[in-house]
Amino acid sequence: MNPELAVAGLAMWAVRLVCSCLFYSIFVPLLLPFELAYAFYSSYLQFLIKSCVERLEMVGNLDAIWMQDTPDNRAIINGVLVLRDQLRLEQLRELVQGKLVEATARGNRRVAAKFQQIVSKRYRRYVWREDEAYSVRNHVIEHEGRPPACQAELEEILSEYCSQGLNMQRPPWLIVLVPTAEGGSVLLFRGHHVIGDGVSLTTLMMTYLVDKPPAQITPVRFGSGRSKFWMFAKAVLEAPYLLGRDLLQADDRSPLHGPALSGRKRLAWIRDIPLAQVKRVRQATDSTVNDVLMACLASSFRRYFLRRGWAIPGSLKAYVPIDMRPRSGEFELDNQFSLIFMGLDLSNGDPLKTLRQTKRSMNRIKASSLPVANYLAMIYCMANLPAWICEALFEVLAKKSSLILSNVPGPAEQLSIGGSVIEAMSFWVPSRSNIGLGVSILSYNNQVSVGVITDTNIMEDPQQLAADFKACLNQLERAVKQGRNED
Fold first, then answer.
1. What distance in Å separates the CA atoms of residue 477 and residue 487, rounded to the nearest whole number?
2. Computed from CA positions of residues 469, 317, 460, 143, in that sequence, does the dihedral angle turn out positive or negative?
3. Residue 233: which domain range?
4. CA dist 392 to 193, 229, 304, 398, Å?
5. Based on the domain organization, do 44 and 64 belong to the same domain?
6. Could you give the strand order of the β-sheet that contains 403-409, starting from the edge strand earlier in sequence?
7. What values do phi and psi take at 303, rounded to 5?
8. Mind listing the pLDDT tens digit for each residue in 248-262?
9. O-acyltransferase WSD1 C-terminal domain location, by residue (predicted)?
10. I want to staple 23 with a disulfide (CB 3.0 to 4.6 A). Which of 87, 240, 295, 331 is the partner?
11. Interacting residues of 280 by C-beta distance below 8 A, sequence separation 6+
């Protein structure tokens, strides 16, 4: 190792250690009386809630974060399944009610209890209460317009639904059945983030709604045992420095970040990217599938900026969710993820250099304790600080990035619902604060889909960004085969 790099690394570690020591020795004792008072106040409110005649359940701390959405930026996860055959509405309602809503796990525990519950407020706390008037007919509906004859028409229909809110006087979820002109069906699922995150909702659907659950739905990402212990220890030690650094970062400055949001959504997706092609590039460049996908996305944004005649920033900051679920344990429909900043390299048009830079960035993230530190901070803040302080902190952090970026590995084999084969699936992530752009990447049955959802004031043509992704992957593969860089 270069001696100068070793000295620099040691100096940085010393700075982090000093910051942590100062924080834990000075600020923690100062905050302790306020934390104890707030803990007593929270316990008193919980006692009042449990004393209510109604059967109420507290909304989890990490779930309650997502009740801070606005009409211009709703915290709604949207997912789509493309089926080969046409399902009847009553058939779909029976499947959803019998296999999903009424699903139980060990000990007769209701897996999807939230699908029959309403989010309310009692004593300034969000709670779940049973919807006495629940009916699956209110939540599984059929599109009444003309069946779409092509993907562009389907995207228009889905964009219209995704621009609407959910009825929060009912359980916050909806499934829309859209028959297609070709004789197939499209299922649009819409669920508020307070129910659960994308990984838990995907797991729920792929475990209970499909005809035969896959062997593996989403690969586990978080470690266990000794490595997990040391990662937590490192996160506790470095958390004050890392979180302070994030809070002091400058806001991302790009044409995609900052304009006032309209609340109108426009979405697009491309679904026929061969996973085998991504793996060929991965193998030839000694990188990972995720490295290749992130590099292609960075190149896509560079193309988009060039096409619009905008100045190209060195990087584009994305807010990325990281799944924090343990390797073992019963399935829970909730939110268990951390959020980190990641810079997409837009500095040059060389696809191989972009991939190398992306790989270096991803390796730094993997070696960092930042995901764990942020996760612990989210838990701590929501449990020990008033809601208005948490909202302010999350707002400050959210405003620093231009987009939300989510990459979820899905089932590797082909699945079916009600005897109809699922030909493709995709999803669109929700945004928050003044972020009006989301990009989602999902693999299914050896295909990769890229979904883009944007506020109409941010981007007028998300279809172009999605299409550029495939073009950039082809360009990268050509560069690898030729053994030279392409400009």
1. 14
2. positive
3. 225-482
4. 19, 31, 32, 10
5. no
6. 265-274, 447-455, 437-444, 403-409, 315-323, 337-345
7. -60, -40
8. 888 888 899 878 899
9. 335-476
10. 240
11. 477, 480
